[in-house]
Amino acid sequence: KDLKKWTDSNIFFQDELREAVLLVFANKQDLPNAMNAAEITDKLGLHSLRQRHWYIQSTCATSGEGLYEGLDWLSNNIANKA
Fold this sequence. Notes:
By secondary structure, this protein is an alpha+beta fold.
């Protein structure tokens, strides 16, 4: 329900932000019941973001796994937009 609330109120879906990039950190990937990237994509409705650049990075904040990779992706994609 929290994800549904996010998509219903998210300004990222507005036309004014069509050039923005979106990075989603999928945290707690070390836990057995963590949603995978496809499930998160579906729950957030990211497939409806046609012509927009988004990425889901699997992470585990306690170990730091995936954090730098996500920030690298964000940095590279912001630089490509400039």
